[in-house]
Specification:
There is one protein chain. Helix content is about 55%, strand content about 10%. The chain has about 120 residues and is mainly alpha-helical. The protein folds into two domains: about 50 residues, 2-Layer Sandwich (Alpha-Beta Plaits); about 60 residues, no CATH class. β2 and β3 form a beta hairpin. The mean pLDDT is about 95. It binds iron/sulfur cluster (SF4) (2 copies).
């Protein structure tokens, strides 16, 4: 999913005008991509004069941080906060949850490779 770095966007609106499905709008002087509307054509990457349309991979540290903030919030819940055994059990459950997500993504990538090879 492409995203727009607000620090780099000058608000020229080129991407808004050229997105083939109208998935980009202006908000407070910078462009924003709507997750639901975007068809992942990558045209906005190619035409932004400021290189402000960025790739998903750059968000990995931010997403990991968000996951860990979620985990920490759970650990701080009254149910867990004063019980180290419950905290450990929760962490193990979350490890299983994220491991399951890895498997889902690996299987999806396998299917995508299969789909590409069938084209
Ligand atoms: S083309 Fe680039 S600089 Fe112009 S509005 Fe879009 S993201 Fe911002
Ligand atoms: S990737 Fe394509 S559809 Fe998505 S916001 Fe950019 S130009 Fe629009």
């Amino acid at each position: 999913m492409p995203w727009i770095n607000k620090e780099m966007c000058t608000g020229c609106q080129t991407c808004v005008d050229e997105c083939p499905v109208g998935a980009i709008f202006m908000e407070n002087g910078t462009a924003v991509i709507t997750d639901d509307g975007c068809i992942r054509c990558a045209h906005c990457h190619d035409i932004c004069p400021e290189d402000a349309v960025r790739h998903d991979g750059e968000r990995i540290p931010e997403e990991v941080k968000a996951h860990m903030a979620w985990v920490q919030n759970l650990l701080n819940h009254d149910y867990y906060a004063h019980d180290k055994d419950k905290q450990k059990q929760l962490i193990e459950r979350l490890q299983r949850y994220f491991t399951k997500n890895i498997k889902v993504l690996e299987k999806t990538i396998e299917q995508l490779v299969f789909l590409k090879n069938s084209k």
